[in-house]
Design brief:
Layout (H helix, E strand, L loop, with lengths): L2 E2 L3 H9 L19 H11 L6 H5 L6 H18 L2 H6 L3 H18 L4 H4 L1 H14 L2 E2 L5 H11 L1 H39 L1
Parallel strand pairs: 1-2
Helix pairs in contact: 1-8, 2-4, 4-6, 6-8
């Protein structure tokens, strides 16, 4: 996020103006209307890259519901990244792949895709994640401000923090239970020796 990007409001406004076609159902097997691999192929060409067929064929997820939301997030990202500002940046091919392979999945796990278009906070998160992924921050924000704001609005970060907190609590409970068992065993051994 070392480089200043466009104004945050410009890109969140773009999300609010997302055409209905980018909000249709993604094609999964025989249902849905939007062929997301074709959409991604077109986006990659806009950025001057070729998308390998095997990469396009491997998109999505195993579970139909999770796959549907992940593909829907990819559709919204395609609309966002087709903005003139992003096109003018010459985004690297590998960074584009990584955004769709990694961040799209994390965003989809935390938030329904249509929320990125309909809710201001979710839209801000999507814009900030995309900008940060390519090393940019919103205009008129320092690096520290941009990092703090991204952490504050990131549902994926909150989910990771919650998961880590649950794992730590589970581990603490397991340790307490193990200590209680050991104390009970030592007490029983003491009684048997006497």
């Amino acid at each position: 996020m070392n480089s200043a990007g466009p104004a945050l409001e410009t890109l969140t406004r773009r999300l609010l103006d997302t055409p209905a076609e980018f909000l249709d159902e993604p094609r999964i097997d025989n249902s849905g209307t939007v062929a997301v691999p074709a959409l991604l192929h077109d986006l990659m060409r806009l950025h001057g890259h070729r998308a390998p067929a095997r990469w396009l064929d491997g998109l999505g997820g195993a579970q139909p519901r999770a796959r549907r939301n992940r593909l829907a997030v990819m559709m919204v990202l395609c609309w966002l990244l087709a903005d003139e500002w992003f096109l003018a940046q010459g985004l690297p091919r590998d960074a584009l792949y990584s955004l769709f392979e990694n961040e799209a999945g994390q965003l989809a796990q935390a938030t329904p895709a249509h929320n990125f278009v309909q809710e201001t906070g979710a839209g801000e998160e999507l814009v900030r994640v995309a900008l940060a992924h390519f090393g940019y921050r919103p205009a008129d924000e320092s690096l520290e401000q941009a990092q703090d704001r991204l952490a504050a609005v990131s549902a994926a970060a909150r989910r990771r923090l919650l998961d880590a907190s649950r794992a730590a609590e589970k581990r603490a409970r397991e340790v307490r239970e193990a200590l209680a068992r050991k104390a009970a065993e030592e007490s029983a051994d003491k009684w048997t020796r006497e």
